[in-house]
């Protein structure tokens, strides 16, 4: 309302000459008085000058503000508002004109709803895309025709009939002229469609319909793109083109250009359910209806986000601290959104049997020190063998062009109740290997052994031709779809079972270590090979037992029957993985299905005692007791009677009791009871009308129970977390551009001078292979190695000494107590500042420091004898222009992280994993898997559930192999950076066009540039489309080839906009004038005199002697 008043004020000021001359309180009055006194030589000239000067000081303040600031007049019965405005209107000239127009309006007696219902009849569901000009013409036509109807009747038919019925022959002639005007207006409106009159500005609310999908719309393809968004076309050159150009108000409206708010990248995801067809744990069966009911509630569209620079992760209260004040080159919440297409696939019973058999065959005892087997015994499943099964299933169904999340619900084996997944050996097996020297010798002398005892034949049978790019789709596989793969897997598992059958602990460990040495995991192969040759196995540590895993390819899995396990920070922290993090079939569905008759009766009695204990000894009305009894039976039925295959006898008894209670409630409807009792009885009866809690019929699709709803909601939240943490995670704040070549500058900083770089205690082969794995197939890695001894470089030694600090850090022990530990660390901020100073002098710059096609990544690797970290808790840290890595001689360092109640041990002699994680953050912004940006908190939050897998970003494994999930994240980081910068350039250019007003004089000048402007804009939009389509098909290498083209096209469009605007505002130079110089007899003497005077003034003079 406040803004409407100002808009009305400015409109009246623009219409009146007085309003154009002044916009402040009393300015018009003072100007007129000033002119009068100046012409008539008024005696109060000085006073009027004073008034005029004081009014100019508040020139920018509208008179409406002065009017609103006046004190409210007291209520008087005979107050005449017209007289007040007549008297005081001299102070508010513009407001006085508004009052004169408004006060003459007669009071309307038309109902408000009727007055504003015209738009609803005009804009119907069949005409919802009418242009404002067309709609205005229709409403004006109705108003004009209605005014003509004095004796006749005008009837507007319903929204399906667009005819106007006129009754009254005498009105037809008078309305003919009006109708001609209406059709003319409609014609003009149709010709100027998309070019609204006025100077409407575009903002962030404007969105391309191409990219901004609504909830019920399809996931777009090439066909949807061309139908939803048309390329720009040049306007005609006739009179209508001039009219449209001038009426558009600005060039952006004329060209129908809107600022880009968002672009959506399709992300295909498969959720593959194994063991949910009724043959898994607790015979739990999922149905498409209930899955769709819950999974359609998952956010399938969410923005790409960036996490601002994180300072110290573990503060004294172990909270994340992030600087929110800093400015960002790219927005934290990006213009790029992920449009996730969820395809749920339920595997057949044969696939479930394969994984049940695999878990039983590939599981071995975690503790080999004893032979005791009970319910508390943990079993470890070889995740390398499971990797073969998952990869072969993905290849068999040809699901590699989508992200696959497997959800397992295998049957529980009574002998192997608690199991988890691990790579390598357990702690007990490592200790056994350390103590058995003969076993170590046997392993080293082993000959050629097959790489894997689980060899599967590669076969393929596609599940679908193309991923169904929809919000939610559901597929149920038949046994015939997977029978061939199942038979091959079962035969291979039987061979594995026969291979390990009858072998003792030493033979099993021997076979596992040989499998690691001959396998494809380079990190484990190098670690075990090096440790076995040295005879010191102190660097081999057991990895965590987990129930989730991220594979090397585009797949990950959750096993709901495994565990439960926990990991994360040992002291405090949020989002820590606990035993309650994953949905539990046993505690939800199983708790309902396994209850016996005796347990059911006990629980019912407990519920009754708990409910009626609240009543106490006081007297209560009969109706209250009946209602309490009904509440108890209702809750018990939802928990223990609904959805059961075998019905409890107690439920039948309760069904009879509920019928008795219903009869007793009906007796309360008589007149002998008061109104409150009757109302309670009626409400209870209405609630019981739709009950079917104790029905004998078992439905094929079971009704939703509390347990199933709780389970499905928890499962949906877990799978949504997988999308936010591993499929499309947040990245670090910054702009990460694609380079054809990456030059890693390795600076090894030692305390003493080393003769050759090969003598350094650094695994250069593992380091170079790991850094090369961070690059995309189209990129090339280059390495440059340098040794910098502190003893020979005083400046570098001073930088190291200044950055070296010490701090007391609390450490949580196994018994639950705290112990203070003193940690020596390098302050990354101080060290970065010192190293930048050295780099400014050129001593640390490489040969590609200023190359456009090559990115230079300096990695400073500090080797120290004593335990040394970076920023108290890290082995490596990624900074804005460098990577810092520290290495010391401690093989088992107790970190601040824990897994299943035990502290995670770090081998400070091999910081390869930490170095690769820091390098990936520096290159493409990859963050640890537990971090993600939360728009609700406006900061980063933690969720450690997906910090798994043998990749550099997890904590539960020592592996450093980059996963395909992370490789795709690196590629998307480059793509999104280029798209973001392109959007910023295009939006800035469109904003300039919004600010450029259209006039008839500039039309011909703009026509010469219009075609080039339209073509360049369409070229940019075409590249956006192409990149989005190719990215949605996960063909990132092809998308990379378009990035340089998009950069040039965006800059070309901006340049064309600037050139067009420059052409509309030419610089008019003054006319060149010719100066004629005439020479006569006096010219030469005059020049000589001037030169003589200049020589006398500027000639050098002798210095005066100094006299002491």
TrEMBL record:
The chain crosses the membrane at residues 1079-1098. Pfam families: Dimer_Tnp_hAT, DUF7906. Residues 63-145 form the HAT C-terminal dimerisation domain. Keywords: Coiled coil, Membrane, Transmembrane, Transmembrane helix. Residues 534-589 form the DUF7906 domain. The keyword Membrane applies. Residues 644-671 form a coiled coil. Signal peptide: none annotated. InterPro entries: DUF7906, HATC_C_dom, RNaseH-like_sf. This is HAT C-terminal dimerisation domain-containing protein. It comes from Vitis vinifera (Grape).
């Amino acid at each position: 309302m406040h803004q409407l008043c100002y808009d009305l004020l400015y409109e009246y000021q623009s219409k009146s000459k007085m309003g154009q001359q002044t916009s402040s309180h009393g300015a018009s009055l003072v100007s007129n008085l000033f002119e009068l006194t100046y012409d008539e030589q008024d005696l109060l000239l000085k006073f009027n000058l004073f008034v005029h000067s004081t009014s100019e000081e508040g020139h920018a303040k509208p008179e409406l503000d002065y009017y609103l600031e006046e004190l409210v007049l007291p209520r008087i019965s005979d107050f005449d508002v017209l007289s007040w405005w007549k008297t005081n209107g001299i102070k508010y000239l513009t407001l006085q004109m508004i009052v004169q127009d408004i006060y003459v309006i007669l009071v309307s007696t038309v109902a408000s709803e009727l007055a504003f219902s015209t738009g609803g009849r005009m804009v119907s569901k069949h005409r919802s895309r009418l242009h404002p000009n067309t709609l205005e013409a229709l409403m004006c036509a109705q108003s004009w025709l209605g005014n003509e109807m004095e004796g006749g009747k005008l009837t507007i038919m319903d929204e399906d009939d667009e005819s106007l019925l006129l009754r009254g022959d005498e009105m037809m002639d008078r309305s003919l002229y009006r109708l001609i005007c209406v059709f003319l207006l409609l014609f003009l409106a149709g010709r100027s469609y998309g070019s609204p009159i006025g100077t409407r500005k575009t903002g962030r609310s404007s969105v391309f319909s191409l990219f901004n999908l609504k909830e019920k719309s399809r996931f777009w393809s090439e066909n949807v793109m061309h139908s939803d968004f048309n390329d720009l076309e040049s306007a005609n050159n006739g009179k209508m083109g001039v009219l449209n150009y001038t009426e558009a108000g600005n060039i952006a409206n004329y060209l129908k250009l809107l600022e880009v708010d968002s672009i959506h990248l399709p992300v295909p995801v498969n959720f593959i359910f194994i063991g949910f067809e009724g043959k898994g744990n607790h015979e739990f069966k999922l149905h498409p209806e209930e899955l769709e009911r819950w999974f359609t509630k998952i956010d399938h569209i969410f923005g790409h986000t960036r996490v601002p620079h994180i300072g110290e992760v573990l503060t004294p209260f172990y909270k994340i601290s992030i600087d929110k004040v800093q400015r960002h080159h790219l927005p934290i919440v990006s213009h790029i959104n992920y449009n996730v297409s969820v395809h749920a696939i339920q595997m057949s019973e044969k696939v479930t049997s394969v994984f049940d058999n695999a878990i039983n065959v590939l599981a071995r005892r975690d503790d080999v020190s004893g032979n005791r087997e009970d319910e508390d015994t943990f079993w470890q499943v070889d995740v390398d063998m499971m990797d073969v099964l998952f990869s072969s299933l993905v290849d068999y169904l040809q699901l590699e062009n989508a992200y696959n999340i497997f959800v397992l619900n295998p049957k529980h084996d009574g002998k192997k109740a608690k199991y988890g997944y691990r790579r390598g050996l357990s702690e007990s097996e490592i200790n056994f290997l350390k103590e058995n020297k003969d076993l170590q010798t046997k392993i080293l002398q082993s000959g050629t052994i097959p790489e894997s005892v689980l060899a599967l034949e590669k076969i393929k049978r596609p599940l679908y031709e193309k991923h169904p790019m929809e919000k939610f789709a559901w597929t149920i596989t038949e046994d015939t779809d997977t029978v061939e793969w199942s038979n091959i897997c079962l035969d291979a598992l039987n061979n594995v079972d026969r291979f390990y059958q009858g072998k003792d602990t030493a033979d099993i460990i021997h076979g596992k270590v040989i499998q690691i040495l001959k396998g494809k995991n380079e990190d484990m192969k190098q670690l075990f090979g090096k440790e076995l040759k040295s005879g010191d196995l102190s660097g081999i540590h057991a990895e965590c037992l987990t129930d989730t895993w991220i594979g090397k390819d585009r797949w990950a899995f959750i096993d709901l029957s495994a565990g439960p396990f926990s990991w994360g920070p040992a002291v405090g922290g949020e989002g820590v993985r606990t035993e309650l993090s994953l949905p539990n079939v046993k505690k939800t569905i199983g708790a309902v299905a396994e209850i016996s008759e005796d347990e059911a009766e006990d629980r019912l009695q407990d519920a009754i005692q708990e409910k009626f204990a609240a009543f106490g000894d006081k007297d209560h009305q009969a109706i209250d007791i009946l209602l309490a009894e009904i509440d108890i039976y209702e809750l018990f039925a939802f928990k223990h009677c609904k959805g059961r295959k075998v019905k409890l006898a107690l439920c039948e008894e309760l069904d009879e009791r509920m019928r008795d209670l219903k009869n007793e409630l009906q007796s309360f409807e008589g007149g002998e009871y008061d109104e409150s009792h009757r109302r309670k009885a009626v409400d209870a009866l209405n609630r019981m009308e739709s009950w079917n809690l104790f029905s004998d019929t078992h439905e094929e699709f079971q009704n939703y129970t509390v347990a199933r709803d709780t389970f499905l909601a928890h499962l949906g939240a877990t799978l949504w977390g997988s999308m936010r943490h591993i499929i499309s995670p947040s990245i670090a704040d910054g702009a990460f551009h694609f380079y054809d070549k990456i030059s890693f500058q390795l600076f090894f900083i030692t305390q003493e001078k080393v003769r050759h770089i090969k003598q350094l205690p650094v695994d250069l082969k593992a380091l170079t292979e790991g850094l090369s794995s961070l690059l995309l197939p189209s990129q090339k890695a280059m390495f440059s190695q340098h040794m910098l001894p502190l003893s020979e470089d005083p400046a570098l030694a001073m930088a190291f000494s200044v950055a070296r600090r010490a701090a007391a850090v609390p450490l949580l022990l196994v018994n639950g107590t705290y112990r203070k530990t003193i940690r020596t660390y390098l302050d990354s901020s101080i060290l970065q500042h010192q190293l930048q100073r050295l780099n400014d002098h050129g001593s640390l710059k490489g040969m590609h420091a200023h190359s456009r096609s090559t990115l230079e990544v300096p990695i400073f690797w500090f080797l120290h004898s004593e335990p040394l970290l970076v920023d108290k808790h890290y082995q490596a840290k990624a900074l804005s222009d460098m990577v810092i890595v520290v290495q010391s001689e401690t093989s088992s360092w107790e970190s601040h992280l824990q897994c299943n109640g035990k502290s995670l041990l770090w081998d400070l002699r091999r910081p390869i994993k930490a170095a690769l994680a820091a390098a990936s953050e520096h290159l493409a912004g990859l963050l640890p898997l537990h971090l993600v940006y939360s728009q609700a908190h406006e900061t980063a939050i933690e969720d450690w559930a997906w910090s798994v897998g043998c990749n550099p970003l997890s904590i539960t494994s020592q592996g450093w192999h980059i996963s395909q999930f992370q490789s795709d994240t690196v590629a998307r980081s480059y793509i999104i950076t280029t798209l973001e910068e392109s959007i910023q350039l295009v939006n800035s250019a469109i904003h300039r066009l919004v600010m450029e007003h259209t006039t008839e004089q500039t039309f011909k000048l703009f026509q010469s540039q219009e075609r080039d402007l339209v073509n360049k804009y369409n070229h940019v939009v075409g590249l956006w489309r192409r990149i989005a389509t190719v990215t949605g098909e996960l063909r990132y290498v092809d998308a990379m080839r378009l990035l340089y083209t998009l950069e040039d096209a965006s800059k070309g469009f901006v340049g064309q906009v600037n050139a067009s605007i420059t052409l509309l505002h030419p610089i008019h130079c003054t006319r060149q004038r010719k100066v004629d110089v005439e020479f006569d007899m006096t010219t030469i003497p005059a020049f000589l005199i001037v030169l003589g005077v200049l020589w006398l003034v500027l000639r050098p003079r002798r210095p005066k002697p100094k006299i002491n």
